[in-house]
Specification:
There is one protein chain. The protein is of the alpha+beta class. The strands form five sheets. Strands 5-4-3-14-6 form a five-stranded antiparallel β-sheet. A hairpin with a 3-residue loop joins strand 4 and strand 5. The radius of gyration is 27 Å and the shape is globular.
């Protein structure tokens, strides 16, 4: 019999996690199925324990901040970011997690018990917490008591539908108000997909979403009826791009695309001709696709090449100093190109703030060596008491060490820029494409020649 101590210490929990790798693999298939089921229950029970520990941490850290003199309205800042680093996920996801963990552990006792016992998954428990988060406490308790006995037999969609149905019955006016709030959060996002594709998503009110889809569908059906050889999906995608960018009309709207690649990859010459490029807002793209984008830009748009130079030994950018307190103009662009996304580990959000690693008030300089790109949430989180960040090198792209209020340390490095081989190893090109055509006399060949023949600048300022 396996002896589990009570209470289970952190070190004993660490040993238990390690013991799972020694699970008996010589059993019959019938027992393997039982192992799968038990491990699923274990994941659910672990999720319940993690939610309980998270809620306790939040209460404790708020108390610590109160003791440090933090104003009541400021308490809680940075706590979700600590949870994000511990869970190795983005602060945005961690903030949602902290919220549902609090609701689950304190106001949904029946759902929490089902999770502890492994009868439901963490995701289904999150759905209940999410869909009841706007209710008054007494209504939330009613939904919990009525729904919990049925949770184990319901799938994800059924849990969501049943929770919404019960919540609407209890507070129909509040539900309508929630819809209004959701409409105010409409947005458009982009994320990478396989094979150098991307997924453009729009969160819209249901009527507008349906009208957009209907319009694109009708246009595609009309085109196919007229003999267009593209598939319906291709026509809908092409029409969306044309209508949004204005590319198919006389009053096309300028759109900027920033591409980072080596000179060898751009010219398809040398040992680094196939070095992947980086497309800002998307991520890595194959060199051949990058050349195609650059070529299309030279034919259909105004195109500039801006050179950035890195050290052959460290891959750090050429030093760039400023006496300003803010990262403006060229220096801000360098940070965006270099960091690409928020520098906080596992965040992945777009850069919104260009800020100092070591604050100016603490003696930090406004330089690329002391600069970092952060999302808005991470920049505000590091202002909470107990947070520290220090650069550990001499240039952008060097390591940053982050220390949280609990003393945990995390190290951050930006993604690697495209790199060539000597003598072009020191050179990366930023290709800016502006649509529609504005200066067609700038030929791609002339720009490549000018970029690669001139000596490196002494400063990027």
């Amino acid at each position: 019999m396996f002896d589990i101590p009570d209470p289970l210490s952190t070190e004993e929990l660490r040993q238990f996690v390690g013991a799972l790798s020694r699970l008996d693999g010589t059993v019959a298939d019938v027992e393997r199925v039982d192992q799968i089921r038990l491990l699923e229950e274990l994941k659910a029970a672990a999720a319940a324990a993690q939610a309980r520990v998270t809620t306790t941490l939040v209460v404790s850290q708020r108390s610590v901040q109160a003791g440090a003199g933090v104003r009541a309205e400021e308490r809680g800042k940075g706590i979700a970011s600590q949870v994000a680093l511990a869970k190795r996920e983005s602060p945005a996801r961690a903030r949602k997690y902290v919220g549902w963990a609090s609701i689950l552990t304190s106001e949904l006792p029946h759902t929490f018990t089902a999770l502890q016992q492994g009868r439901i998954t963490e995701w289904r428990a999150q759905i209940v917490a999410r869909e009841t988060g706007w209710l008054a406490a007494e209504h939330r308790a009613q939904v919990d008591a009525e729904l919990a006995p049925r949770l184990e037999s319901l799938g994800d969609r059924e849990v969501e539908a049943e929770t919404k149905k019960l919540a609407y019955r209890l507070d129909p006016h509040g539900y309508v108000g929630r819809i209004s709030k959701a409409e105010s959060e409409r947005r458009v996002t982009l994320r990478p997909a396989a094979d150098a594709m991307s997924v453009l998503s729009a969160l819209l009110p249901v009527a507008e979403g349906v009208s957009v889809l209907t319009s694109l569908t009708q246009h595609a059906d009309s085109g196919r009826s007229a003999g267009d050889g593209r598939s319906r999906g291709q026509m809908m995608a092409d029409t969306l791009v044309e209508r949004v960018t204005g590319r198919a009309t006389a009053d096309a709207v300028p759109v900027e695309v920033r591409l980072v690649m080596t000179d060898q990859a751009l010219m398809n010459h040398g040992a680094a001709a196939n070095e992947p490029a980086h497309l800002e807002g998307f991520g890595p793209v194959p060199a051949e696709l990058a050349r195609r984008i650059a070529k299309t830009g030279s034919e259909k748009a105004d195109l500039w090449l801006r050179r950035l130079f890195t050290s052959p030994s460290t891959s750090a950018l050429v030093a760039m100093e400023s006496r300003r307190r803010h990262f403006d103009d060229g220096l801000a662009k360098v940070l965006i190109v270099w960091d690409q996304i928020c520098r906080t580990p596992w965040c992945g959000a777009p850069i919104k703030h260009k800020d100092h690693v070591t604050a100016v008030d603490d003696g930090g300089e406004t330089s690329e060596a002391n600069g970092q790109g952060l999302c808005e949430a991470c920049n505000y989180a590091k202002q909470a008491p107990g947070w520290q960040a220090r650069p550990s090198g001499s240039g952008a792209g060097d390591q940053i060490q982050i220390t949280t209020p609990t003393g945990h340390r995390y190290r951050s490095r930006p993604p690697t820029l495209p790199r060539g081989t000597p003598p072009s190893r020191k050179r990366a090109l930023v290709v800016d494409l502006i649509h529609p055509p504005g200066r067609p006399e700038k030929l791609l060949a002339d720009l490549i020649h000018a970029s690669c023949s001139q000596p490196p600048p002494r400063s990027l300022a």
